[in-house]
Design a protein that fits this description.
Largest sheet: 8 strands, mixed
Bound molecules: N,N,N-trimethyl-histidine
Oligomer: single chain
Strand content: 15-25%
Number of strands: 13
Distance between the termini: 85 Å
Length: 332
């Protein structure tokens, strides 16, 4: 047998001479630039927003059902127990602006108590919102609804269709934890500016607790959070046309007590190179990409943050273990 013989038919790709990956990039120029900058930084990082492609969103829903992931069910318990109390503090007739609304279910469950005059769900995926809002409008015909498809994480101005009076921002789920404390203050300042003098904020915050509980919530036994984190690599392959091989990476998550945050990373299992049109990077074995931070607060430290941002806190509700807090803050 002649092993070195060339095959009879050779298919030559017109791009075969190019050494970098030939996968098409599906992200916008801005997204490609943002991801490339992070991947080429000395300590590589990516924004947690890239965790959420359609599989990523499903994996996050699955995380919310895990026994180790306490935030979702703890917060739901607080809403169920104290929803009427919250409605009392906020008052009927508000314009409820739901940040990261998704399927709008959390806000909708509060409608009968909160009785808002207007509901404004905001989410990056406007198409997803429109379907959810159409259904909600049927169930609550008396509430005026207007969906906004925008990425509010880097600041935003509300269109004229949003009423100016009694604006109440709804930001549940402890998503504020994805911002550093400094970023959170400037984000909250933006909400305060948009809320006007008679507005407010209803926000969910995850609290510091036993480190083993925190670690397990982000590194569960089934490996769902690992799948969620690793799935970002598939999403990046799609967005920038990279050639990440998921099997070469592993999920790492832990509570960093000095910085009061959960950190998620993806760690290279072996020396490897990642290429995409326009760039490439070598990773040593053990080198990481920092994919998410999830800051944890004490009640006091979060109230201080709200005050720095110009809010006056009015009420706080927590579960019996003090694991999670829902806070109503007034603009003044
Ligand atoms: C959606 C940002 C609130 O930080 O707990 C869950 C995301 N990451 N497991 C969180 C997440 C890993 C989640 N937030």
């Amino acid at each position: 047998m002649q092993l070195s013989r060339a095959p009879a038919i050779r298919v030559v790709s017109p791009l075969a001479s190019n050494t970098v990956s030939q996968r098409p990039a599906h992200g916008s120029a801005a997204v490609i630039k943002e991801i490339t900058e992070g991947l080429l930084a000395d300590a590589a990082y990516t924004s947690p927003k890239f965790l959420y492609d359609s599989l990523g969103s499903k994996l996050f829903e699955a995380i919310c059902e895990l026994p180790e992931y306490y935030p979702t069910r703890t917060e739901a318990g607080i809403f169920a127990a104290y929803g009427a109390d919250m409605a009392n503090a906020i008052g009927a007739g508000s314009s409820l602006i739901d940040l990261g609304a998704g399927n709008c279910a959390k806000a909708a469950s509060l409608f009968p108590l909160l009785k808002p005059a207007q509901y404004v769900p905001v989410d990056i995926s406007r198409d997803f919102l429109l379907g959810a809002v159409a259904q909600l409008q049927q169930r609550f015909p008396q509430i005026e609804m207007t969906a906004l498809g925008l990425d509010f994480s880097s600041g935003f101005a509300l269109p004229d269709s949003v009423r100016g009076e009694r604006r109440v921002f709804f930001y549940p789920g402890s998503s504020i934890g994805n911002f550093s404390p400094e970023q959170a203050v400037s984000f909250l300042r933006g909400l305060r500016a948009n809320a006007g003098e008679d507005g407010g904020l209803l926000i969910g915050v995850d609290l510091i607790k036993d480190h083993a509980v925190l670690d397990a919530a982000y590194d569960d036994a089934l490996g769902v959070t690992g799948a969620f984190n690793l799935n970002m690599l598939r999403h990046l392959n799609h967005l920038i046309g990279a050639d990440f091989d998921v099997g070469q990476w592993k999920h790492v998550a832990f509570f960093n007590a000095d910085r009061s945050r959960i950190e998620m990373h993806l760690e290279a299992r072996c020396p490897l190179t990642v290429s995409w049109p326009g760039g490439e990077r070598d990773f040593a074995r053990g080198e990481r990409i920092h994919t998410e931070d999830s800051y944890k607060y004490t009640r006091q430290s979060f109230v201080a943050l709200l005050e720095k941002a110009g809010f006056a806190t009015s009420r706080m509700w927590t579960d019996k273990d003090g694991w999670f807090a829902v806070i109503h803050a007034r603009a003044s």
